[in-house]
Each structure stands twice: as C-alpha cells, then as structure tokens.
Write a structure and sequence with these properties.
CATH architecture of the largest domain in chain A: 2-Layer Sandwich
Radius of gyration of chain A: 19 Å
CATH class of the largest domain in chain A: Alpha Beta
Structural class of chain B: alpha+beta
Strand order of the largest sheet of chain A: 4-5-10-6-7
Helix content of chain A: 25-40%
Largest sheet of chain B: 5 strands, mixed
Order of helices and strands of chain B: EEHEEEHHHH
Oligomer: heterodimer
Largest sheet of chain A: 5 strands, antiparallel
Structural class of chain A: alpha+beta
CATH architecture of the largest domain in chain B: Roll
Strand content of chain A: 25-35%
Order of helices and strands of chain A: EHEHEEEHHHHHHEEHEEEEEEEHHH
CATH superfamily of the largest domain in chain A: CO dehydrogenase flavoprotein, C-terminal domain
CATH superfamily of the largest domain in chain B: Beta-grasp domain
CATH class of the largest domain in chain B: Alpha Beta
Chain lengths: 289, 159
Amino acid sequence: MVSVVYEAPDSIEGAVNLLANADVPAHILAGGTDLIIQTNGSSDAERLFVDVKKIAGMTEANLTDTALVLGPSMSCAAFTECDDIKAVFPGLVEAAYLIGSTQVQGRASVGGNLCNSSPAADTIPALIANGAQCVIAGPGGERTVPVEEFVTGVGRNCMEKGELLKQITIARPAANTSDAYLRFIPRTEMDIAVAGAGVSITLDDNGTCTAARVGIGAVAPTALLVPDAAAALVGSTLDDAALQAAADAASAASSPITDRRGTVEYRRQVVGVLVKRAATIAAERAKGG
Amino acid sequence: MAKSHVSTSINGEPVEYLCDPGDTLLDVLRNELQLTGTKEGCGSGDCGACSVTLNGRLVCSCLVLGVEAEGAEVGTIEGVGANDKLHVIQEKFLEHAALQCGVCTPGLIVSTKALLEENPNPTEEEARYYLAGNLCRCTGYDKIIRAVMDAAETMREGA
C-alpha cells in the first residue's frame, strides 16, 4: 500500500512549489488513468500527488484567431466535444478520441498522454504533425519546447523536478490546411497502437502541397517528426509516387521493436502505409476547408 | 497518515467521509459508504465494472481518488432506479436476460444511462462503441445490446 499525500493547489506557482520542494517522489495528477495504476503496483513508499486540475486554465481549451491554447488536463471527453477545434484540427481530435474507453476518456487528457510519454501514445504524432509547443512552468520560470523534443525516451520526458506542463499551444494553421491521424490496431476499439501516423497538409489553390508535417508513433522509443517524409510531399499533388516516397521515408525513419503486438518488419511496413493514408485524408480535408 | 475529509454529493445527497488520500473512489464507495452496487473487476480501468459518473462524466471509479470527489457530484448504480421501482434500463436488462453472473451489470447500466443521456437515439454501432469499455465475460454482449436498444426506444417514447 502506497502512502499518498494529496495536494490540490489552485495556482501554477503553488504546484511548482510543491513539486520543487517535495522530499518524496512527486507526481502530477491529471486524469490519473496511468498514474493511479502505476502507483497501485508499487511498494510502500510515500508519494506526493499534486492534482493540477484546480488550477485555472488546466482543464479548458481556447481556440482564438491565432492559436489553440489547450489546458493539458482537459479530459479527452470534453476535448472531443469541442466542435470548433474539431473543425480546425480534426486529426488531433481523432487521436484524442482513440484513447481508451468512454470511461477512460472521461478522465484521460492530451497533456497526460504526452507526459506519460509512451512510445505508442496516440496524441503525440498528431501533436507533432500540428507543430504543437509545450509550455512548461518551473521554479526558474517558463520555457517552451517543441513537442517532438518533449519526449526523450520510453516513459521519459524533458521535464525536470519542480516543472509541470502548463499549456499545449498550436498556431492556427494557414488556409487550406488540415490534418489526420491513423493508427493500426488488430481490433476496432480499446487497444494500443501497433503503429500510428499523424500528418498535416497545406495545399495551394491548384492542389499542390506547399507545407507538410509528418509524425509517427509506436515505431521507435519516442514518437518522431519525419522531415524527409514531409519533404517528399511538398511540391507534389500527393500523387502515388510522392505518397510512396513519404511512406518509404517514414519506414526508413522508424526503428521499431518486435513484441506481441507486431514485428519489426510489420511495423516498419505499416507505418508507411498509415502515412500515405493519413496524408491523403488530410489533403482531402484541406481541399474541403 | 492523516485521513482526508471529503464533502461530496452522491446520487444527489450530500455525503461526507474520511479516506486515505491513496484510496480510490471505488474503495470509498464500497468500504466506507457501503454502496456495494459498484463492482470491482480489474481495478485498472479496463473492464468498466466500477463505472460511475463524476460531474456528469462516465469514469472508472478505480481510476479516481476518493479525495478527488471533493465538491463533485457522483452518480452510482444506487441512484439509477428508485427503491421500489426499477429504471427502464434495469427492466430491459431483466426482460432481455442481459446478464448472467451480474458483476458487469451495474457498470453497464450506469454506462447505458450515460449513453442515452448523451445520445437518446444511438445506432447499434454507436452503442457498441460507447459501451466498449464495459466487459462482460458471460453474455457475449448480444443480449446486452438488445436491452440497450430496447431501453433507448422505450425512453424515447416516454420522453
């Protein structure tokens, strides 16, 4: 039985103080869908849980003319109900919608998915595709880290003791831009990605791709930004050759492992296919928008 | 370890309790408050047997700390029907024999109620996706889905 000390500060400063001055292992409690399970299995040490959901802004999202400002602890259930965000970032919302069951989505959050830093996290490739920035508050003030640099290894990220994720921000995309996220699982629901791909595409009036970002997940220790895949799409009309080149670049960038969900060869192949399909969907949406 | 004092609302009634900060809401409901209708299945958020609503959102009570219910509104299976009258969803589960051992049933009924409040007219596919987090190892789900669809229709007619 783990002995837990629970604190629910109402300010970022209060949370940072608690986390920075903790003399026992300190954990940030957002939705708890990972943390509470991880704690259940551990031996009887004292833990500090800092519930950040009472801090203003942590559980809400705000889409302005210039950016999406996402409170990291907003539940996926609440996030996926935001029609204005869905219209601009349909792929990111789809990724959030894929996390766990209805019950898990009632608590789990995009920020929690990011901070848990699983290689197979669904929202991370979609955040990468959209160029998300992580605003981290700490004892020394705030710093901003691009999402593709946030996760540093399996279950590890760049946050130091005393720091917490305050906001996830995404600049509002250019006109004729949209995104898509696809993952492969062997069933239709309630599973963990074997491979995942998030793609954002910007088109000009002739349907030529002028900008792209490609993020892949579950095929390396961390989700990856794949600039070579994006470069293969830019300048093309997303014809078969360009899509295949992007797929090949994603496969080449991957470094998957074999486990019970898939083999190295399979994951490498499938992630390319997912990039192709996600790019095609994102482009269709970009035309429609 | 000092116990935490929590003031909350359960099924519309104000409730106060003391709990260890590490206790889950499920622990509190079953062991502290004797609301044993909510079942523990997996204890890791996979099976949905412990489903309750927290401020109107469907959640697994095994993944919520008891202290997090401070100031919140909790809804459990005990609040679904009245003492002397079953809720339509409960009646339909009986009518369609949508249960065998019954461990998943409270969670499924709480989830079905949440589904039908959100979407009174779900397709079978929507119902199956919404309830995918409620595992049943007895029925094979078909009778459950029939009960859910029938309850939805009956509730729409009654509305």
